[in-house]
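ESCALATION

Customer reports they have been waiting on this structure for their group meeting. Please prioritize. Original submission:
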Amino acid sequence: MNEPNQALIFIYRQLLRLYPASFQQEFGEEMHTIFIEAATDAAVQDAVGPFFLRELRDIPQSLVQAYWYSWTKKWQEGIKRIRSASTTTDLPPPPPDGRQAWRQVGLELSLFLVVGSLLLLVTYRPFAELSAGWQRDLEFLGQVITPLTLPLFFIGLMRGLPRWAYPFGGLLLSYQALAANQARLWPFLTAILLLSLTLGAAAIITDPHTSLLPVSLRRLRQSLALDWTRLSFGIYGALPLAIMAAFDDAFVNNQTSYLACAVLAMVAGALLYSRSRQIALQIAALLGGITLSIGAAWLDKAAFAGGLRDGLAVPSPRTAELAWMVHLWAIYAFLILLPPLLALFSSTVRLNRIGDPL
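Update from on-call: job pushed to the front of the queue and completed.
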């Protein structure tokens, strides 16, 4: 037997139809030719059966590799289209930030100074209209946070999201996240967000003639690409909510200096971030700010528990309270570290692709 069995060739042609269409167009003829040559050699050696069984055994792995290749290629082409549609090469330079001008430092600290001052005012000079437990009243907090942050964050969006706008967005979105969590709307909002992102990406990828996105959207990409730690700075903008939560059950807030220390640490962390030029120093400043701010609440509990007299017996801060504060700190630390870690991972993947000989 020195000719390959035509039935086997027919079966192999049908198996080739299982591969992605693009893969068939690119490699189908080559694979068919190689199979005929290998089948002819097997026929000469009277080993067509074992040869075909080996081919059938290798088909599943080959299909997985082919579909992975096809999906990866489509993904890369889609990313290229998105980058082309959101290019920033024709945009003017981004506005300066606190590293270049002290005026920008004032803008970047404005949220922390205003919110910190309000916290100190209502703590040490409380208004009679404020009811007990206002820190847990999301409706009341919304009446303060939304008018304070929404207009300035909107202005920042219209101006290409300069760095001073990130803390306003962080505080606003964090409050909205708390409200959504209380109303149990997370599944719905997450589904809507993922659907919107998917539809937006699909509209760009499937567009036969890629067109540029609006300038306002491309300026947002320009702002993020300039420095990914800006997202960390936005998350740091939600620190006032953490301070209120940490000091929520303090018994004598209007007699403690630890709340003032927490506010001072928050402002100092923002100031150091604003002036730092290295990513490591920026992240260290933000982590230092949340550590000292939340740590001040723990010291407040310890000082209060150890300072009661007149027969009142209050135990020292419990392990559960310490664990809760550590958990609160860990959440903020993780969210602050996440953007630069993602940027580092993205850069590593890009360098590996450049260095790939294929």
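Sent to customer with the following note: Residues 6-85 form one domain.
Escalation resolved.
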